[in-house]
Specification:
Elements lengths: L2 H12 L5 H13 L1 H20 L8 H20 L3 H31 L4 H11 L3 H12 L3
Helix pairs in contact: 1-2, 1-3, 2-3
Amino acid sequence: MNCEHYRKRLSKQADRELDRASAEELEEHLAACPECRLFRDGMESLGREIRVIGVTQLPIGLAERVKGRVARERERRLDSVFIPAWSRVPLVALITLAAVGLGNVAGSSISAMFTSERTDDTVEYLLVSQSPSFADALMDTGNEENGQ
């Protein structure tokens, strides 16, 4: 037996959303399942209690007081999570220095991979002969754009 399936049907039955065939199947299950009958009895008892309580009028301004308290609590939590302003500058400086240091380490290891077997003359030849410098490339682009 899949009691969870039937308990969902009990909820639909309480809301008057259950068709006749499903209601009959539910009644057959309830006849054989004491746990689901106990669940149904609890739901019915809760429904009776709710009807006895009835509708009560909420105090005027309750929603505004609740929203204000929620906002204050949210601000309190955010204040405890964020790092104070005076400590942010050194933290940003430390992160920047670490990034620059890692960049230098990565750059030197990459250049070592490409130049480990080459002599200084070979590297210089490759750098000079393979492509123009960045400044030369900029000057050429500038001349073409100006029509020179």
